[in-house]
């Protein structure tokens, strides 16, 4: 081993002496971003009424955030590589806090939508910077496993926590607090990060910014996310929806072509073409499709069919959160250094699929304790076990200068997966519900019978869509098992040392 290689672990230790303290603030920031993806959903009806937002425009409260966040992620990841991850992270936090304050103080529709778009834009700076900081700070295999176990639990379970917090704030305080609650999160995380994080030297990518790549990727991803969002509200046959998908395909194909030609690409193709990372991005995106669809269905099932309050609905998701935390921090972390990642990811997705399979048995009078609770536990355990190695492997082996954009790809696969899951599975559910009601409404002669048919139609729609989610999780498991072929981490040396030494 060369002197350079021997010196790397010592340098890492010197520059990362506060890395565990830094993890606290990185995790807090990640929790804030993930919470925001769902916390506003429960508050939306109250905000819509107060601000006079029309039914046709209310979806833009969600869509404005999703478009800005999903469209700017690759750009945000490249900025963190160019500008410095710590600086980008702190800037993203401060901007997110400001945008949240604007949203909480909104006096009308335009102010609310602008605040949501700003939240998405600063989130696109913040999220890849957070993950890439972990990637460059935790390089020892055992420490990396623990750090990514915590991060994976937050990434997986934060959305469900958002439902609890959103319900509590909306029911007992005011919908505006679903925005204001971000401010203390962001201020504490920014202050802690500023004083604690010491980013390792030599990881910057100071190449000129790939402007054509930025424009093509941003417009392509915005078209893709908006296409799926519009498909949910206007149907798959809508001319604008089809046009958005075609535009997205053309723009993203042009983006790939440009990236293969320019000297300093926004997304170096080496990041996604490596089979392990490519397998992670694809399988993770598919799993998120299943998960986001499920959040939507369970929320409606519990509130409309079972009559739960917003707070009770939020707490009903606790078993899933518990399962994710246990799966990520206990099962995933303990086994990651002992077995190959695919032997955690594939079984994890399959276990989540078993939990999803149980939910296909939902009926109007299904017992929460007998059906929903065990199903959520299995889902959480499976997803937590799979997410943890996936998050770690998504940035494993990349050159430090590519850590930001590799992290952005993880977030992009999650964001696009969430948009696809909500639109695709909701469309399937709505179609099945309509078909069921048309077939059975004629036999319902009284008002109570008609209401019962409508509720049965809703549940039938949910279970039909959940069958598709089961298939998606099986496909995610197959992709993870086939593409992810790296072995268990080398415990005798710091991860990435040999590559760094060779590069130097």
Plain-language structure description:
This protein is mainly α and 504 residues long. Helices cover 81% and strands 0% of the residues. It contains 19 helices and no strands. It has helices at residues 3-15, 19-51, 59-83, 85-104, 109-137, 141-172, 177-180, 182-196, 211-234, 239-261, 269-273, 275-305, 310-316, 318-336, 342-359, 368-393, 403-440, 447-483, 497-503. It starts with a helix and ends with a helix.
SSE topology:
Blueprint: H1 3-15, H2 19-51, H3 59-83, H4 85-104, H5 109-137, H6 141-172, H7 177-180, H8 182-196, H9 211-234, H10 239-261, H11 269-273, H12 275-305, H13 310-316, H14 318-336, H15 342-359, H16 368-393, H17 403-440, H18 447-483, H19 497-503
Features:
504 residues; MFS_trans_sf; 0% strand; disordered N terminus; transmembrane helix; MFS; disordered C terminus; cell membrane; globular; mainly alpha
Q: Proportion of β residues?
A: under 5%
Helix content: over 70%
Number-wise, the strands total 0
Spatial gap, N to C terminus: 13 Å
Apparent shape? globular
The main pleated sheet reads as: none
Uncertain regions spanning at least 5 consecutive residues: 1-15, 491-504
**Number of H/I helices:** 19
SSE topology string: HHHHHHHHHHHHHHHHHHH
Integer-rounded radius of gyration: 22 Å
- Derived structural class: mainly alpha
Q: Overall mean pLDDT score? A: 81
């Amino acid at each position: 081993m060369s002197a350079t290689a021997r010196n790397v672990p010592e340098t890492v230790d010197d520059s990362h002496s506060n890395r565990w303290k830094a993890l606290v603030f990185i995790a807090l920031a990640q929790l804030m971003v993930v919470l925001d993806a769902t916390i506003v959903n429960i508050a939306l009806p109250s905000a819509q009424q107060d601000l006079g937002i029309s039914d046709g425009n209310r979806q833009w409260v969600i869509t404005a955030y999703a478009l800005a966040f999903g469209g700017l992620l690759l750009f945000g990841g490249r900025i963190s590589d160019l500008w410095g991850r710590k600086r980008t992270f702190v800037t993203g936090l401060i901007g997110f806090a400001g945008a949240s304050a604007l949203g909480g103080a909104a006096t009308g529709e335009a102010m609310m939508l602008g605040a949501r778009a700003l939240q998405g834009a600063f989130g696109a700076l913040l999220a890849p910077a957070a993950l890439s900081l972990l990637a460059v700070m935790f390089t020892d295999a055992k420490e990396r496993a623990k750090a990514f176990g915590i991060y994976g639990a937050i990434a997986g379970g934060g959305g469900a926590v958002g439902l609890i917090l959103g319900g509590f704030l909306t029911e007992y305080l005011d919908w505006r607090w679903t925005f204001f609650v971000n401010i203390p999160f962001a201020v504490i995380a920014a202050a802690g990060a500023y004083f604690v994080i010491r980013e390792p030297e030599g990881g910057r990518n100071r190449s000129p910014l790939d402007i054509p790549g930025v424009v093509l990727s941003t417009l392509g991803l915005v078209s893709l996310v908006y296409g799926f969002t519009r498909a949910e509200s206007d149907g798959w046959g809508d001319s604008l929806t089809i046009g958005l998908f075609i535009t997205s395909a053309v723009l993203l194909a042009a983006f790939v072509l440009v990236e293969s030609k320019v000297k300093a690409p926004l997304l170096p193709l080496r990041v996604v073409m490596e089979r392990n990372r490519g397998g992670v991005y694809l399988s993770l995106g598919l799993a998120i499709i299943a998960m986001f669809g499920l959040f939507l269905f369970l929320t409606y099932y519990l509130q409309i069919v079972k009559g739960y309050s917003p707070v009770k609905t939020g707490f009903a998701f606790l078993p899933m959160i518990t399962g994710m935390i246990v799966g990520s921090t206990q099962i995933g972390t303990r086994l990651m250094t002992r077995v190959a990642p695919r032997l955690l990811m594939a079984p994890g997705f399959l276990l989540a699929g078993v939990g999803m399979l149980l939910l296909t048995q939902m009926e109007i009078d299904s017992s929460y304790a007998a059906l929903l609770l065990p199903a959520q536990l299995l889902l959480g355990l499976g997803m937590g076990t799979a997410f943890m190695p996936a998050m770690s492997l998504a940035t494993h082996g990349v050159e430090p200068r590519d850590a930001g954009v590799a992290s952005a790809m993880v977030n992009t696969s999650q964001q696009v997966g969430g948009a696809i899951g909500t639109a695709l599975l909701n469309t399937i559910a709505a179609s099945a519900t309509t078909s069921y009601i048309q077939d059975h409404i004629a036999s319902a002669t009284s008002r109570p019978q008609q209401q019962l048919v409508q509720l049965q139609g809703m549940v039938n729609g949910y279970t039909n869509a959940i069958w598709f989610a089961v298939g998606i999780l099986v496909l995610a498991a197959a992709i993870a098992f086939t593409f992810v072929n790296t072995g268990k981490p080398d415990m005798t040396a710091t991860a990435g040392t040999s590559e760094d030494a060779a590069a130097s």
